Every structure is written in structure tokens, then in C-alpha cells.
Amino acid sequence: MRDAVIVEAVRTPVGKRNGGLSGVHPADLSAHVLNALVGRAGVDPALIDDVVWGCVGQVGEQTFDIARTAALTAGWPESVTGVTVDRQCGSSQQSVHFAAAGLIAGQYDLVVAGGVESMSRVPMGSSVGDQKPYPDTFLNRYGGVAPNQGVGAELIAERWGFPRTRLDEFSVASHEKAAAARAEGRFDAQIAPVTTDAGVVQHDEGVRASTVEKLATLKPVFKPDGVIHAGNSSQISDGSAPLLMTTSEKAAELGLTPIARVHTAVLAGADPVLMLTAPIPATQKALAKSGLSLDEIGAFEVNEAFAPVPLAWLADIGADAKTLNPNGGAIALGHPLGGSGARIMTTLVHHMRDNGIRYGLQTMCEGGGQANATILELL
């Protein structure tokens, strides 16, 4: 029976908005990690059947199927195709799901899954302009309320009873974990430094020292009396990450060593106004489908879109808090929308291999009240 395995995973450092990667075209950023990926694996890119690439802001420099543009920018043969995926923040995690499905179905033998987002160059919301994304029929279904992720985060904090201090404590801890991981070199093997006209970007730029007292001085963004502010939200970022995927049989044929198998891949949908709670049912669905128990999962990655999201997940799922985002999350590392799913999975794969963790689970909240959940098995 065919399977889907990850044989290599790499990422750029995550650049802060208008930071070290802001001068790099997103196709060039993608091409850089595509070449780093095949270089590390020792694979001829001519063998790759497709590049499945997540990107949310498919406008301007990220339009015209940036997956194909990236492969050609990388200098890969014209025979290598590319397709661009939008499942909002989970776009490149969905790319992994599509790639895995294609491998298992026999449509692919060797495929790249990943994504990119340059939020400095293509600001969030650029694709909307002055248009109306939700028709009246949609709005009428939800009482005339247009979904807003920040308002959704406020609603989650209120529903789960999280005071601002709890959110800020979580955010400070995210920076502390990321800073420790960086200082100890835990990210070094997964990062492909980017050389720019201004110098070399080697490390994630968003990680900084913070305190609850510092965060208390920040003004709420979405409600005057709210609890969500810039310090307990994911950072606007630039970055890209790919994973090289194949089957166990093809890996053996090519002399590649699988790192992890895609054990289970599911989706879940929930309230699109609350928007950010679907990781909870997605996790429950993944566990039920996999036949694994919660305590068999040694590492969890739940995207830190806003601090209430992983905290609500933790409260409802009941996982050990020490296994959640062990190297920090998007509050500290940043959230380059279309590239985040692959960035997180790259970090998860390396963490599992470095620590001998058999099963890891990743889930992300997504626009429209959706979530992907993926369970990986270390090989």
C-alpha cells in the first residue's frame, strides 16, 4: 500500500514586517528554499512531479500561480509544474495534505509541498481592495456580521474566560521558548539563511524579550475595552518553507531516508464568525480517525494566531501544556500566512527527530472557521 513520507524539510528565517526579507520578491524567496530543499536531499528537480504551494495574498507579486513562477525562478526544468493553494492561514498545511493524497493515489511519486507569504510586499487584505467579499445572502445567515479574526479572538477570550493577563503570560512564554530554541541552535538545521543586498538573514526576526508589564502598556486593537493587542497576536511576517515528499518505496529507490510519515490528515469546520475554534474539532477528529490516544502524541503545534486560540484548544483538548508549541509559536516567530503551515510542520518534523518523538500533531485556525489537523509519525 502506498504511503506519504517527508524526506526533507527546510525554511527561511521568518522576517518581521519591513525587516530583512522585505526586499526579496516572494518568488525569489520561494526559489531560495526550493533549491535548498533539493540540494540538501540530493535530488534532481527534474524528478519532481509538482510544486503544491500555499499563498493567501494571491495578488501583485504573488499572483499568476506563484508556485509555477517559483519553480521556474529556481531554475528548475520547465517540465516541473506548480499549483497555488488558498485555505487562508492553513494554505501550506493544506498543500501537504494535497501532496500526501496525490502520493497515496499514485498521481505523484515525488512532490514538494509548502508555501510563501511576503506580507511586507503584499500587505494583508490587498486582494480585497474596495470589493465586498461576503454577499448579502452570507451576511444574512450570520445576522449581518462580517467575520473578523480579531473580533473572533476577542469572542473566544470572553467565552473561555481568559483575562488579559493570562493571554499576555502565554505570549511572553512563547517568546521565551523561541529565544531558548534559537540560543540553543534548535532552529539551525531547519533554516536556510537568505542573502540579501543588505546582508544575510540567519535567524527569525520577531523573537524578543518581553514581560507582562510591557505588554500591559499596549492598547487593544479590536475593542476599546478588549484584551487583544499586538503583543498577544501573531506577527505580520515574511517567509517561505517547503517539504519534500514521496512514498516509502520511491524513497528507497532514490536512496532517500524518510523522516516522518503523514499518518492522519483531516479537516474541520466551525462557526465562521467566531472563526478560530476549528482546531478543537479538527484535533478531536484526527485523534478519532488515527486511533491514537491524546497521551500518545508527544508534541503539538497549534498556530498562535492569537493567544486565546491555543489556550482554548488546550482547555478543551486537555493536552499537557509542556508539549504545546515547545519552540514558541507565531506570537514570537511570526506568521507569514501562506507559508506558516509548512514553517510549523518543518519545525515540528525537526523537533520530533531531534527528540525521538514518535507522534506529533499540528493544527491551525483558518479563515471561514476552518482548520487542518495533521498527525505525523516519526520513522
UniProtKB/TrEMBL annotation:
All copies of domain Thiolase N-terminal, residue ranges: 5-247
The keyword Transcription appears for this protein: no
PROSITE patterns in the cross-refs: THIOLASE_2 (PS00737)
Active site: C89, H335, C365
Residue ranges crossing the lipid bilayer per the database entry: none
Every Thiolase C-terminal domain range: 257-377
Gene3D superfamilies in UniProt: 3.40.47.10
Keywords annotated in UniProt: Acyltransferase, Transferase
Keyword Heme (UniProt): no
InterPro entries: Thiolase (IPR002155), Thiolase-like (IPR016039), Thiolase_C (IPR020617), Thiolase_CS (IPR020613), Thiolase_N (IPR020616)
One Gene Ontology term of the molecular function aspect: acyltransferase activity, transferring groups other than amino-acyl groups
Similarity comment: family membership: Belongs to the thiolase-like superfamily. Thiolase family.
PANTHER family membership: ACETYL-COA C-ACYLTRANSFERASE (PTHR43365:SF1), BLR7806 PROTEIN (PTHR43365)
The protein, known as: Acetyl-CoA acyltransferase
Lineage: Bacteria, Bacillati, Actinomycetota, Actinomycetes, Cryptosporangiales
